[in-house]
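Observation: inputs received (chain + fe (iii) ion).
Thought: call the complex predictor directly.
Action: predict_structure
Action Input:
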Amino acid sequence: MRVSALADLHTHTFRCGHAVGTEEEYVRQAVRLGLKAVAITDHIPFYWLPPEAHDPTLAMAPEELPAYVEAVLQLKGRYRGRVEVLLGIEADYVEGHEHTLAQILQTYPFDVVLGSVHWLAGFWVDAPTSLPEYQKGPERVQQIWARYWQTLEKAIRSGLFDVMAHLDLPKKFGFLPAEPLTELEDAVLQALLETGVAVELSSAGRRKPVGEDYPSPRWLARLATAGVPVVLSSDAHAPHEVGFAFALLQQQLQQLGVREVLTFRQRQPLALSLAEG
Ligand code: ZN
Ligand code: FE
Ligand code: FE
Ligand code: ZN
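Observation:
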């Protein structure tokens, strides 16, 4: 199945210290696949922590952000007519630091801002170093999930983000809540419906221990039924991962009766028909 006419809205670069490839290598791969658009969305610097807490293996340093933006904007011009290059960023939501984030987001002409909850008061939800926390047992797992959903709801309602990334991220290592957290999940769905914020269907989970997309098929069906807008994403951390499994993502959405996905330009949503892909 062709995946042209689709857009990959989530990719990283060497700048974050745990991905490989230059911005241009990701763009070239998008051209090779015939994608309509590709967003470069590297991890935002740790704006909520003191400078000495900067970890070069998790995100670029604050002083590197202008060069990143410049590199993506140059590619936007250079590849015009071949693929639409979007200036994006994957921005962490951290409660209490909304104002600082808003200021960073205003500084640059972003096309799309992905919102992520990776950080819960000193704890990285998805870092491999967090595995021992999940292994502490079902009670701790339950606690992480509850805290995660509560924070995600605030992130959605913050008005800072266009798209929520990896909606059910705490499942990454395969640890699921022992008791269903129905009320917290319902609150997340409600927040999406009230704000109109989109959700990514990301193939990255297929490359992780959990072995399934973000969000799970159960969540995806719920979102589709409720009419929450969806974007496609690979969360590529290497150029060859651009558009990863997009034909399968497209098929899955079509089976759920979803007819279009979104792309963004200057933070405004645009619909792309799945039938053309
Ligand atoms: Zn990353
Ligand atoms: Fe992320
Ligand atoms: Fe990412
Ligand atoms: Zn990510």
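Thought: report the result.
Final Answer: The CA atoms of residues 4 and 33 lie 7 Å apart. The chain has a mean pLDDT of 96.
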